[in-house]
Amino acid sequence: MSPVAASHEHAAPDRAGLIAGLVCYTLWGFLPILFAAAERSGAGAYEIVAWRTLWSIPLAVLFVMAADRGASLRDLWLSPRTLLALVLSSVLIATNWTVYVWSVVHGHVLAASLGYYLNPLLNMAAGAVVFRERISRTGYAAIGLAATGVLIQGVALHGAPWIALVLGFSFCGYGVVRKMAAVSAQTGLLVECLYLAVPALAYAGWLFASGHGAFGRAPAPTLLLMLCGPATVVPLALFAFAARRLPLTLIGFMQFISPTLQFFCGLASGERLSPLGALSFAFIWAGVLVFAGGAIVRGRRRRSRSA
Fold first, then answer.
1. Which of 5-14, 79-88, 149-158, 162-171 has the lowest mean pLDDT?
2. Residue 123 burial by CB count (10 A; 0-12/13-18/19+): exposed, middle or buried?
3. What percent of the chain is predicted at pLDDT more than 70?
4. Are 90 and 192 in contact (CB under 8 A)?
5. How far is CA 164 from CA 167, 173, 214, in A?
6. 250 has pLDDT over 60
7. What is the pLDDT of residue 227?
8. Contact 61, 48 (CB under 8 A)
9. Which end of the chain is more exposed for a tag (fewer CB within 10 A), N or C?
10. How high is the pLDDT of residue 100?
11. Is pLDDT at 69 greater than 60 in this prediction?
12. Phi/psi class of residue 270: alpha, beta or left (left: φ > 0; alpha: ψ in -120 to 50)?
């Protein structure tokens, strides 16, 4: 959840912000289709992540310039503490991207969607632990239901649901670090991509030189790998736009669109949902409903007090 949205919690949602938010979460929800298509064209998970990073840079530069963040980018180099924080956020987002792409190309989209269902609930818990934010009774209930769902998923998998846990905790940790770092979303993403460009370029170059890479061999895989960059940067830009114009409660409810779409992408690709797996998701969805319901009630109370 972007901290930018918090200051606009009482603002009435405008049409442009609503459309941007819907498009943003829809694009994130359909990312498995792009990554699966790239894999079928011959690209491996790590090659997809490498080119996703490299092709994010040109568009990230354009967004930074369009947002008139050139000055903030120059000032950033004078802040070693922020640059160090972005090293940590780069590691966390690289972990998240790699595990997510790996799970998609290996047929574990349902497990990946579980991780992103958990993310807003983990954010709530992190807010309480790291930022001393207060958790409501509905918040504790939502976390309890989600935790029960994870335990059931562990029983169904005969072990820890590591994909969901790594995705949920890495993205939650990324959000915490970025919340604490004094840098805009566009500038931060560009710096992260520049950090990650070194290993990404080295790996992509090795693949290309050794003849094992898919990029450059044929038009289809090359185009698909190039699209991974815009598919990363465009939704983030749309989110930044929507977060400044929509109430926090609406953003909180909309963020469940993407894991729901991922869930159905997994089913459409032929993944099997066992009875225990279905029960696990039932508890997760119950936690989501409690979380969203509590957010809506709190938003109405705040608006009433403001009125």
1. 5-14
2. buried
3. 92
4. yes
5. 5, 14, 28
6. yes
7. 96
8. no
9. C
10. 96
11. no
12. left
Place of tokens 């963020």: 255
| Percent of the chain whose pLDDT exceeds 90 | 39
CA distance 209 to 36: 24
Q: Global pTM?
A: 0.84
Amino acid at 278: A
Is residue 234's pLDDT more than 60? yes
Alpha-carbon dihedral angle through residues 165, 167, 171, 176, given to the nearest 10 degrees? 20
Query: What is the dihedral sign for C-alpha 235, 295, 182, 166?
Result: negative
Residue pLDDT, tens place only, 109-143: 999 998 888 887 788 788 888 878 787 888 888 88
Mean pLDDT along residues 30-55: 95
Provide the residue type at 130 as one letter.
V
Task: Pull the structure tokens for residue 302.
Answer: 């705040």
**Distance from C-alpha of 148 to C-alpha of 128, rounded to nearest angstrom:** 20
Q: Which two tokens stand for residue 233?
A: 């940067």
**Number of Cβ within a 10 Å radius of residue 40:** 12
